[in-house]
Amino acid sequence: MLKGFINFFKDLITDRKVIYELAKNDFKAKYTNSLLGIAWAFMLPLTIILVLWYVFQVGFRSSPVDDIPFILWYIPAYLSWQFFTDAFGSGSGCIFDYSYLVKNMQFRVSTLPLVKIVSSSFVHFFFIAFILLIYLIYGYTPNIYNIQAVYYYVCTVVLLMGLTWTMSALAVFSKDILNIIVLITQVGFWATPLVWAPSGMPEASQIIIKLNPMYYVCVGYRETFSEQVWFWEHPALTLYFWIFTLVLLFIGAYVFFRLRPQFADML
Length: 267
Description:
By secondary structure, the protein is mainly α. It has helices at 2-14, 16-29, 39-59, 70-92, 94-97, 99-102, 112-137, 148-171, 176-191, 203-210, 213-227, 235-259, 263-266. One of its GO terms (cellular component) is plasma membrane.
């Protein structure tokens, strides 16, 4: 298994241009038949942000959270979740999307989930710049804490690799997996503190919520832009996240590589 990981990372370096080109083409292909093209990739998150801002800040007149305007408190966590759900859903179906490459014995199929993750990253990078712009409009200038966005992006990518390796391999044998993923992400939106703060909940409930690895990522993005907290100020939560994520990564790799020889026959 360890040798397989070493070879995988070596191939990532060797094939980085191929992966980037596949990701770029994948991103373009999603919107080639629509009138507005790739603009749709940005319109959906912007529309949801606008609607939730209107509902909570104008309709419900939500007060600032920890002295931060609601929209500034909400956007970083939501956009990190949007990146996760988009990459999780598309990455889990990558074997079907690239069935012609799966049957190519020269191509390392294990990089396909990463292609989908990189494809989703293009929109995510745009929205990180969007977050900084919104903060500037509200009078908040960029600061050194913002560089943590790179760290939490890496956290999300590693978590996604473990999940998409597992789910993409299982989906080949049952497409119900893709429907289960939709269900998980729908429930996860409300189970993750995106539009609500967990601080008012009982301590036992907070512990349960923190078992969700996306709690660490979403709250981390929020702290990166609005609360100015370093990730190492949560040592227990950081340790839990990386233990959970690395175990999931090894499980995903094991499942994917064990099932990989049967992909071509099942497609």
